[in-house]
Design brief:
By secondary structure, the chain is an all-alpha fold. It contains three helices and no strands. Its main location: membrane.
Length: 79
């Protein structure tokens, strides 16, 4: 008797997961994203307005979030 979950498990064994960003480049990408977020947040802090929020504030927040996760993964702390 074969279960669907067992079939999926056996099919996945032949094709291992390959991440889109390799382990060797996570530190560089994380550092770059954190640096970009620092620059964007600084510019946004100097010119605060509702017009600059979608242009500078939201990209700075996203860059910081993804950069922090990549840096955490790059140094060996897995989330």
């Amino acid at each position: 008797m074969s279960s669907p979950l067992l079939d999926v498990w056996e099919a996945a064994a032949s094709s291992p997961y390959k991440p889109s960003i390799g382990k060797g480049s996570q530190f560089t990408l994380g550092f770059l994203l954190l640096f970009i977020s620092l620059i964007l947040a600084t510019i946004f802090g100097l010119n605060r307005s509702f017009v600059n929020l979608p242009i500078l504030g939201i990209p700075a927040s996203l860059a910081f979030g993804f950069g922090a996760v990549y840096m955490i993964c790059a140094v060996g702390v897995y989330v």
